[in-house]
């Protein structure tokens, strides 16, 4: 494999001669910065959650509403989707056909949708126990933090669909690859945030 | 479905009472007439603009040359235009408030309490989010790529989207004049007062969504500038060789990236409280308004430095250029800038010393606050030493810089006073505080922006601004500031609460009358700026500076024609030291044709920016009035546009090398014809932008 490389931190791709020099580097760098900004948003949501933990105001508290089982399953699904996305990225770099890439993207998408399904089911269960955000400060904070992550996963899924359409339209050209690298960063970032949510929200809520 | 249901489905809470004209008809009071007059100004202004654009056949150029442009220079200019329009409105509001206070001593005055509260809320919101932020973003946009020797910012389309989101937010604030009311909760919008329980109307919703649009745009701008400065510098432009304005722009960008999310979150959570019955900041059911205050000022304090640092950058450039001297203490200025950036995140609590922390916590934050005075003091000395033994010329931008040096130190001193918690307990929520922050923001932001505008104007448009009107404007701004705000220190110490619609202490009267005179003088300052612009455009042929270096300045933006070509640099410069253009002038190695010219790819225009901005504003308007179909439509439309754009591959067009070369040679011929001038002829028509080399360069 020869030709100029997409030069940047992380998985560098070969044969990127249609991009201007440095374009890949600054594109990914910009996306890292965006993720930092997003990380600040989540950090603050966690902080707000922490301060509102005791503000149950007579409504159901953490022990009453959290179920560790589904949350654990969600964790496994999301972490697995991170692995499959990694496999998609490797397929993108080394596999000359687009089959591997498309298959792994579809698997990641399926896992993402499954995660959302479980999560919505969790929310429905909570609602059936009358645990809705208008009841207390604690539930407000929960329903701001966890669904914000869910919204990000939804956007990630939508993004995968768009990328599948782009692969169908253009094949895996340099711009598609660059987009996929950014999508990968986004997807893995959401995993990290979820690990925080699983530990701080669910484990802490159930174990206390 | 009944008629009411249909109305709600179609138009939400919008009804005839939302129009200030109807309200003025129903209750013909002076206050309502002022409100209706302001609303009418928006409507008439809008219609007048449509007529003008149609009459002059400017619609096509407006859209095809400007609104859809991805050229960082045009985007920068459009930012400054937004700032100028919004500034005019917010300054008129300030004059109205000063007039009210000077009249309403044991009297009703001219505006009702509700109206007065809207005035101080819009004044603050506009001045921060729609005057200061667009102004500095515009300057950074225009200048930074030129200073670091690149052809554009890292993400030109994102740049256009940022601009249009900001414009959408500004538009929303303007619409609130003609449809409905604005918030009465001040620019900081503290709940629970801005919650649904106390303000069920549309006011706080206008505030929330206008600020949200602007903060999203600003986050994206910060990201864009930081990537540009880190990744797009020309060969040899090491970080420590950048002009200081780039350093302050970088620091401001970093602050934008980290400080805007708290604001976005604060407004989003407040919106959840108002729209979906959440309990983040309510008085009941476990809400905690201190979370809001902390989030808001986690944004709010770094914001102060987002505003001030670019002005510091401008002063560094202006003082160095108009002293014909290298910037004194470059490294210390860089370190001080970065130190201020870090410290700005450690002091947010001083905005609410009186809200229940322990004395120890207050002491820590008070000391941290005073620490910021140290790097700032370093800067002041550096600027003074830059002028020392320089060939100082008192042009209008230089005069603003000098006024800044003196006035800002005074504001800093009152800041040190406020940083002492016991003093803060005494004067908090009085006009002492109002005097303090105007005393830092007017010299520390506004003078800098005006100086930057006058300094770089010839670069952007190819002719100098009228010096005489610039100096008249300077006198108005400085005298106006001292008259308007020094009395507020006295009044604040005398216990006058801020944001008072009516007063009951006759002893305040003389001070308030002085302050209102000052306010009118400040308005005259703005008017003279517009006169200056008008006069300069009229006399532009006499003041052209096509060679591009009217001030014998030092950084790369002056090494290219004025106005610069779309691609900025015919060949990308190579840099081997700081102030490279100045030293090349001294060595007479500038203004040379390159050995060869290459094709240059420039981004094609795109409609995505205007579409996203418009759809965002539509979405926000729908949210304000609970017109849900409109909100959803706006949101979907914006995202569909962005996704559709990701399928566009044909995004650049090529400027052929021959065209670049021809243009460059025409310019070089013009340089050849031009007569270099010494600095004393700088303000005369003989200045065509070519500087006579300074006799003997003075080392720092």
TrEMBL record, chain A:
Q: Which Gene3D superfamilies match?
A: Cytochrome c oxidase, subunit III, four-helix bundle
List the SUPFAM superfamilies.
Answer: Cytochrome c oxidase subunit III-like
Q: How does it sit in the membrane?
A: Multi-pass membrane protein
Q: Which UniProt keywords apply?
A: Cell membrane, Membrane, Oxidoreductase, Transmembrane, Transmembrane helix
Chain segments annotated as transmembrane: 29-51, 71-92, 99-118, 138-164, 185-205
Among its keywords, does the record have DNA damage? no
- GO annotation (BP), single: aerobic electron transport chain
Function in brief = Cytochrome bo(3) ubiquinol terminal oxidase is the component of the aerobic respiratory chain of E.coli that predominates when cells are grown at high aeration. Has proton pump activity across the membrane in addition to electron transfer, pumping 2 protons/electron.
Q: Which family does it belong to?
A: Belongs to the cytochrome c oxidase subunit 3 family.
What is the protein's name according to its record?
A: Cytochrome bo(3) ubiquinol oxidase subunit 3
Automatic annotation (TrEMBL), chain B:
Any one GO MF annotation of this record: metal ion binding
Localisation per UniProt entry: Cell membrane
SUPFAM superfamilies per record: Cytochrome c oxidase subunit I-like (SSF81442)
Give the InterPro entries listed for this entry.
Cyt_c_oxase-like_su1_dom, Cyt_c_oxase-like_su1_sf, Cyt_C_Oxase_1, Cyt_c_Oxase_su1_BS
Which keywords label this protein?
Cell membrane, Copper, Electron transport, Heme, Iron, Membrane, Metal-binding, Oxidoreductase, Respiratory chain, Transmembrane, Transmembrane helix, Transport
The enzyme's E.C. designation:
1.10.3.-
UniProt domain Cytochrome oxidase subunit I profile: residue ranges: 66-576
Top-tier EC class: oxidoreductase
Oxidoreductase keyword on record? yes
Read off the Gene3D superfamilies from this record: Cytochrome c oxidase-like, subunit I domain
User: Which BP terms in the Gene Ontology apply to this protein?
Assistant: aerobic respiration; electron transport coupled proton transport; respiratory electron transport chain
Query: Where are the membrane-spanning stretches?
Result: 33-55, 76-96, 116-144, 156-179, 206-230, 242-272, 292-315, 327-349, 361-378, 399-420, 440-457, 469-491, 511-535, 606-625, 631-648
One GO location term (cellular component): plasma membrane
Membrane association type: Multi-pass membrane protein
The principal localisation class reads membrane
Q: Which PANTHER family match?
A: CYTOCHROME BO(3) UBIQUINOL OXIDASE SUBUNIT 1, CYTOCHROME C OXIDASE SUBUNIT 1
Protein family per UniProt: Belongs to the heme-copper respiratory oxidase family.
Stated name of the protein: Cytochrome o ubiquinol oxidase subunit 1
């Amino acid at each position: 494999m020869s030709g100029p490389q997409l030069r940047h931190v992380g998985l560098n791709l070969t044969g990127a001669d249609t991009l201007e020099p440095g374009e890949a580097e600054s594109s990914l760098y910009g996306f890292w910065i965006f993720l930092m900004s997003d990380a600040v948003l989540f950090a603050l949501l966690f902080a707000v959650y922490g301060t509102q933990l005791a503000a149950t105001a007579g409504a159901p508290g953490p022990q009453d509403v959290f179920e560790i089982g589904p949350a654990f399953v969600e964790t496994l699904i999301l972490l697995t989707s991170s692995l499959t996305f990694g496999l998609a990225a490797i397929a993108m770099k080394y596999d000359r056909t687009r089959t591997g890439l498309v298959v792994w993207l579809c698997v990641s998408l399926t896992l993402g949708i499954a995660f959302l399904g479980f999560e919505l089911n969790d929310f429905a269960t909570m609602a059936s126990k009358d645990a809705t955000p208008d009841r207390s400060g604690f539930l407000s904070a929960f329903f701001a933090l966890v669904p914000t992550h869910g919204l990000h996963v939804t956007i990630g899924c939508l993004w995968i669909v768009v990328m599948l359409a782009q692969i169908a339209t253009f094949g895996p050209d340099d711009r598609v690859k660059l987009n996929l690298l950014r999508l990968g960063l986004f997807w893995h970032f959401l995993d990290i945030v979820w690990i925080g949510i699983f530990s701080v929200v669910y484990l802490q809520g159930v174990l206390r | 479905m009944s008629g009411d249901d249909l109305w709600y489905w179609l138009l939400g809470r919008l009804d005839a009472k939302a129009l200030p004209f109807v309200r003025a008809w129903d209750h013909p009071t002076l206050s309502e007439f002022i409100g209706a007059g302001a609303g009418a100004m928006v409507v008439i202004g809008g219609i007048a603009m449509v007529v003008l654009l149609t009459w002059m056949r400017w619609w096509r150029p407006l859209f095809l040359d400007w609104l859809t442009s991805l050229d960082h220079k045009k985007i920068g200019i459009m930012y400054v235009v937004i700032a100028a329009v919004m500034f005019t409105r917010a300054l008129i509001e300030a004059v109205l408030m000063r007039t009210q206070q000077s009249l309403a001593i044991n009297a009703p005055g001219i505006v009702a309490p509700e109206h007065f509260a809207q005035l101080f809320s819009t004044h603050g919101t506009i001045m921060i989010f729609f005057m200061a932020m667009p102004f500095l973003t515009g300057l950074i946009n225009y200048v930074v790529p030129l200073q670091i020797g690149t052809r554009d910012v890292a993400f030109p389309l994102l740049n256009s989207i940022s601009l249009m989101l900001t414009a959408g937010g500004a538009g929303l604030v303007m619409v609130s004049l003609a449809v409905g009311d604005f918030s009465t909760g001040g620019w900081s919008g503290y709940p629970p007062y801005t919650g649904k329980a106390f303000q069920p109307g549309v006011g706080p919703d206008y505030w929330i969504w206008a600020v949200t649009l602007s903060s999203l745009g600003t986050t994206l701008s910060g990201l864009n500038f930081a990537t540009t400065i880190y990744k797009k510098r020309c060969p040899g432009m090491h970080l420590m060789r950048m002009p200081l304005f780039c350093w302050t722009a970088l620091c401001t960008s970093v602050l934008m990236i980290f400080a805007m999310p708290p604001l976005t979150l604060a407004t989003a959570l407040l919106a959840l409280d108002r729209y979906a019955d959440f309990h983040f900041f309510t008085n009941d059911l476990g809400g905690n308004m201190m979370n809001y205050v902390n989030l808001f000022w986690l944004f709010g304090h770094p914001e102060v430095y987002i505003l001030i640092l670019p002005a510091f950058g401008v002063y560094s450039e202006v003082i160095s250029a108009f002293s014909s001297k290298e910037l004194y203490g470059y490294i210390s200025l860089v370190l001080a800038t970065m130190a201020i950036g870090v410290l700005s995140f450690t002091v947010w609590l001083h905005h609410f010393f009186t809200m229940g922390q322990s004395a120890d916590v207050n002491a820590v934050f008070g000391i941290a606050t005073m620490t910021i005075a140290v790097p700032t003091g370093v800067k002041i000395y550096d600027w003074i030493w830059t002028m020392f033994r320089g060939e100082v010329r008192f042009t209008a931008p230089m005069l603003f810089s000098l006024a800044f040096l003196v006035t800002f130190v005074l504001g800093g001193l009152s800041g040190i006073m406020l940083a002492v918690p016991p003093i803060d307990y005494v004067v908090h929520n009085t006009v002492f505080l109002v005097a303090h922050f105007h005393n830092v923001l007017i010299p520390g932001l506004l003078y800098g922006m005006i100086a930057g505008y006058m300094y770089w104007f010839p670069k952007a448009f190819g002719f100098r601004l009228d010096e005489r009107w610039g100096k008249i404007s300077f006198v108005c701004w400085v005298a106006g500031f001292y008259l308007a705000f020094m009395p507020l220190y006295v009044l604040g110490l005398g216990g006058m609460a801020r944001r008072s619609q009516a007063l009951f202490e006759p002893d305040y009267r003389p001070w308030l009358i002085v302050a209102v005179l000052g306010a009118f003088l400040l308005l005259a300052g703005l008017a003279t700026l517009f006169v200056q612009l008008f006069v300069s455009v009229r006399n532009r042929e006499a003041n052209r500076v096509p060679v591009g270096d009217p001030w014998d300045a030092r950084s790369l933006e002056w090494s290219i024609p004025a106005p610069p070509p779309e691609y900025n640099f015919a060949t990308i410069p190579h840099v081997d030291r700081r102030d490279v253009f100045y030293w090349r002038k001294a060595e007479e190695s500038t203004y040379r044709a390159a050995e060869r010219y290459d094709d240059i790819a420039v981004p094609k225009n795109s409609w995505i920016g205007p579409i996203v901005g418009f759809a965002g504003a539509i979405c926000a308007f729908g949210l304000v009035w609970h017109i849900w179909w409109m909100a959803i439509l706006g949101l979907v439309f914006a995202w569909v546009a962005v996704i559709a754009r990701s399928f566009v591959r044909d995004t650049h067009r090529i400027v052929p090398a021959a065209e670049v070369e021809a243009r460059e040679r025409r310019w070089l011929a013009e340089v050849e014809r031009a007569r270099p001038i010494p600095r004393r002829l700088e303000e005369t028509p003989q200045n065509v932008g070519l500087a006579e080399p300074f006799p003997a360069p003075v080392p720092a």
